[in-house]
Amino acid sequence: MLRRERGDVKVEVSVVIPTHRRPDLVGRAITSAFSQTARPAEVIVVDDARDAATENVVRTLMQMYQGALLYVPVEPAPTSGASASRNAGVALAAHGLVAFLDDDDWWDERYLEQAIATRALCSADLVLTPSWMVVDGEREEWAQPSQRAFASFRPGVSGSNILITREAFDSVSGFDTGMWVMNDVDFFVRLRNQGVSVVAAPDRLVFHEGRGDGHLTSPSERRAQGLEHFLAVHRVRMDRSAVRLLKRRIHAARISHDTPRLERIGHQLGVAWFSTPADVGGTLRRRLRGRRRAH
Q1: What's phi and psi for 12, nearest 5 deg?
Q2: pTM attached to this predicted model
Q3: Residue 46: what are its φ and ψ, rounded to 5°?
């Protein structure tokens, strides 16, 4: 899987970056993919907004990474989130290993090298890498994949820490385009049910952008409905703790400046009802530090 070319380590990996109106951030994601110590053979940027500013950024970078960077505009898919874009990217991928990176996230330069080595060591179909959440330059531990977590509905998966074989991806027909929230967890659960082998990489080498507008994880009715849909699909296999967490998030998603006062109070009470002491403690710590997590 590794081969040397012009003195650099090249890897037969296709990187898929879905993007939606983030011309100010997508360049960072692309650059981090090509800055890997094990450089991917291709990076496929799938733009579901057909955004002129985004296209300009990508095409400028295409001159630097000639032949290895592909820009793919697709029709908007308002109910599918990034799922349809990821699937479209994989459909064009030329290699048997695929890595996903969201447009507002980035990788440490050792990310692919570690993920490939971990997969080879364990003969796994899927590798998940621990990640950081970065808010205003400060980082805190975020996704923490582990063998114990893999049996739960909090497996430590995100849209940016997945390295998977094409065969495993195809075994579940990719991401569910009807799951516009928590589509990464849904993807993992279906892979788990399929018996796909999964392993956690050791070092925390993925970075999530914790600020900015337009996150599917920001409070909105759309997010609340997406969480309700996930719960309806998977509840029969979820334990009480996972159901409680999801209900807490549903109430939290409906708390915004536009929510009528009485409704907002009702959802705040709902958040409190489904919160554990650890949830409350985490919220208080973030508020004391003047930080609000976007994810």
Answers
A1: -80, 70
A2: 0.91
A3: -110, 115
